[in-house]
Amino acid sequence: MSRAAVHDAYGAPRDVLRVVAQDPGDPADGEVVVRMEAAALHIADLRTIEGDATFRQPLPRTPGFEGIGRVERAVGVVDRGAAQRIPRSVMRAMASAWRS
Question: By the 8 A CB rule, do 19 and 4 touch?
Fold first, then answer.
């Protein structure tokens, strides 16, 4: 079971962030499951959590614009090798790095 920081309201991070257990499920065709190793705290993450109009995202949401991890499972994508380390910047969705 993975863990993720999530928020379902906008506000101060200390008030709205919580850590929850999540099942990452199986990847769909063309997707991968990445085990995050490290995630950075970026000013854009704070603005998104606070609900700044420029950074507002649909809720609930797992923040995180930067990080690094290893591919654990892949479906229908070029096999880059199990456990290949990839930076968050090449991942399809530019969010949700705050997961284990």
Answer: yes
